[in-house]
Amino acid sequence: MKTLVLTRIIAREEELQYIEVPFHMPKSIQKILVNYEVKSLGQSQCVVDLGIKDFIRVRGWSGGARREFYIGKNQATPGYVSGPLFEGEWSILLGAYKIPIEGCQVIITVSLESESEEACWLKGDLHLHSVHSDGSYTIEENAKIAKEKGLDFIALTDHNTISQNYMHESYGDVLFIPGMELTTYKGHCNLYGVKDPIKDFRATNREEIKNRLQEARNNGCKISINHPFDQYCPWEWDWDVDYDWVEVWNGPWTEGNERAIHWWQEQLVQGRKLVVVGGSDCHRPHPYVKQGMPTTWVYSHSKSVSSILDAIHKGHVYLTYDPMGPQMEFTCGLATIGDTIKTQEKMKLKVNKLQEGDIVKIISNKGIEQEFKMANEQGLYQSWHSEGKTFYRVEIWRYFLEVEGYLMAALSNPIYIQQGE
Questions:
Q1: pTM listed for this prediction
Q2: Where in the sequence is the domain holding 284, given as residue range(s)?
Q3: DSSP string, 110-141
C-alpha cells in the first residue's frame, strides 16, 4: 500500500471555483482510497466538495456528502465509476463552495493498493439468485451474508436477466462477478464475466442454444453447464455445445451431484481435461441451501473478475461444502491444482481443518489410489510418486448427523500428468 498526502490552501478569492490537486497514478494499481480533512483558517466554517478525475474524464463526484471514497477495477463508492486505474496524471477535484476570509487548508490522503504479484486462494459462490429473478434476497442482503461468511466474491446468476449486473458496484469488500443463468426448458448454464452477455435468452431447439452460446462466447463470456444430472432440471441438450466448465456440485450434496462426479471421472479417464466448479444456487432462506454452500476456492493473482475467471479456466479450483470446510494444498513441485506436469517430482497433499472420521481419498485414472480415515482432528500430509498415471484428484468425505451418513466435504480439480515426450 502506497500513501500520498496532498495539502492545498484555498484562498477566499477561489471561492466557487473548482480546484485540481494533481497526483501521479502508478502502474498496476487495483484500488484507490481517498479521504480528506478541511480546516478553516479563520473563525467561520467552510465547505469544500470532493471528486476525482483521471486524464480523460471525471470519474466521480460526491460533493460534500462524503469524507472518503474508493475506486477499484470492479467496484466503487456510489457516485464513482469503477474500472481500470490507468497510469498517468490524475487529480483530486475540490469544489470551493464556502471559504472564510482567512482561507482554509485541505489535507488529502490518497492510498494506492497495488495488484498482488503472488497468487492466493480466494473463496466465493458462483451461483446465486436475487429479487432480480425468482430469489427473495436483495443484492445488498446477498453481499452482507457473503461478507459475514468471509467470501471474497459472488456471482449473481439470475435467470435470463441482466439487471442485477448493473446494480452491484459498491457493496463493501465482496467482489461481484457479472453473471446470468441462461435458463431453458432443456437445461441451464451460467454465463460469466460480461454484464450483457446475450440479447435474447429464448432457445427451443439445438440451433438456437448453439447460437445463444456462440453469442455469449463472442462477447467474452466463460460458460458453465449447471447441475447437468439434476432430478428436476438436468442438461438435456447434447454435450456438443460450446462450454468451459461443469457445475458438478450444486447446493447440498445430492444424487445428482454424485452422478455428475461419476460422469466427470469418466471424462478424465478418457483423457479429457475438464474444469469443475460448484455453487449454492441459493434463492431464499433455507435450512440447507445457503450462500457459500458449496464454496469455490480459486488460486488467483488478484481479486478481480478477469483474474478469478482466468484462474478458474486454468483449473486452479477446489470446492468445500462450506467456507470453513477442509482446506487443501495439493502440489507437485511448482505445479498446483489444475496444472499439467511432466516432472517425476512427488505429489504432495496437505489438508487442514479435518474432523475425526473424515475420509480422504486420492483418486487417479485407475480409481482410488489411497484412502485415509482420520482418527483425530489433526491435519493430513501425504506424498507419493505419479508414475503411470494421467491425473490425480482429491475427495474428502464427512459424516453429517443431519443425514446420518457421509457426504462430500471437499473436492479438488486434478493435477494432470503428461505422458511421453
A1: 0.82
A2: 119-324
A3: EEEEEPPSS-EEEEEEEEE--TTTT----HHH
